[in-house]
């Protein structure tokens, strides 16, 4: 069954995502990240700006060749990429994936901004209606 986690009240979703992706990469986990195109561009830049020893290999999909995508552990996608995308999805405020049950793990990062929080609550309810077990992690003040 799909493991769903919500991280809410996140003050800096981009920084949070970078830390999460760095951890996933070190653990050998393949991940796709779904977000609005402008946020993906900012995340792409942030991942390139990491110190060399902490570089996280990533690719924009669509845009990369199938061969490059196949060997790159982190995919940045503006929407649900579908198979053969990595089965772990980090969602940074994009629409809920069309088939959340096809994923092994779904991680929602929800900012503290009121409109984003409202959209996050909608996705939370949708996952519950799908019968998914959802874990919630509220950010601490300032984090």
Kindly estimate the percentage of residues that lie in beta strands according to DSSP.
25-35%
Strand order of the largest sheet: 3-4-2-5-6-1-7
The percent of residues in helical segments reads 25-40%
Name given to the CATH architecture:
3-Layer(aba) Sandwich
The domain count comes to 1
Assembly form of the protein: single chain
Q: What general form does the structure show? A: globular
The rounded Rg comes to 14 Å
Measure the end-to-end span: 29 Å
What's the total number of strands? 7
Q: How many H/I helices?
A: 4
CATH fold naming:
Rossmann fold
- Low-confidence runs of at least 5 consecutive residues: none
- Average pLDDT metric: 90
Largest sheet: 7 strands, parallel
Element pattern in H and E: EHEHEHEEEHE
The CATH C-level name is Alpha Beta
């Amino acid at each position: 069954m799909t493991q769903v986690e919500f991280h809410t009240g996140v003050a800096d979703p981009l920084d949070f995502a970078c830390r999460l992706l760095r951890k996933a990469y070190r653990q050998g986990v393949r991940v796709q990240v779904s977000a609005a195109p402008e946020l993906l561009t900012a995340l792409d830049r942030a991942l390139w700006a990491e110190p060399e020893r902490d570089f996280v290999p990533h690719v924009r999909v669509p845009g990369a060749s199938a061969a490059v995508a196949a060997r790159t552990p982190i995919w940045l996608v503006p929407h649900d990429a579908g198979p053969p995308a990595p089965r772990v999805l980090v969602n940074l405020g994009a629409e809920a994936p069309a088939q959340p049950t096809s994923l092994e793990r779904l991680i929602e990062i929800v900012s503290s901004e009121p409109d984003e929080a409202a959209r996050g609550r909608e996705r939370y309810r949708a996952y519950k209606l799908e019968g998914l077990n959802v874990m919630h992690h509220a950010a601490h003040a300032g984090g």
